[in-house]
Amino acid sequence: MVLIIILEGCFNPFAPKLDEDLSGGSGLISDQTNVEGIFQNLRYAYSFKDTTIYGQLLDDDFSFVYRDYENGVDVSWSREEEMKVTNGLFANSERLDLTWNNIVGLSTDSTNIIRSFNLSITFNPTDIVFIDGRVNLDLIKSNGKWKILRWIDESNF
Fold first, then answer.
1. Residue 148 pLDDT more than 70?
2. Which secondary structure element, helix H or strand E, spans residue 7, and what is its range?
3. In total, how many domains does the chain have?
């Protein structure tokens, strides 16, 4: 009987106390009230293949632009097409590792940022693609949150 009373007062490592302070601000997902939140949420969306978080990063008037070197033209598409392409990437890869590097260019009002990155895409253990490059992002602040208005891909892919 004494053993039961002693055990009731002990800490149970399999049932830790709930952290009720959710305002810490150091979570995996940013509220996008600062520009760095865009990059934090992009990394999260890629790491966890989360199209919901990814979609929240893009403005309604979003456009994606990349250079088709084979045909010598720039290709662009809308938010809707970007979500389809990204969903396909997330669904068809086993793992995505995105690393943000130095900010190469920054406008004084933070509406344009050029930043280098490394991305590895693992489709399967014998098919891994490495992409190095830069993103050239035009950002817009809407309802207190930063969103991506235009993404120009400056990668080596």
1. yes
2. helix 2-8
3. 1
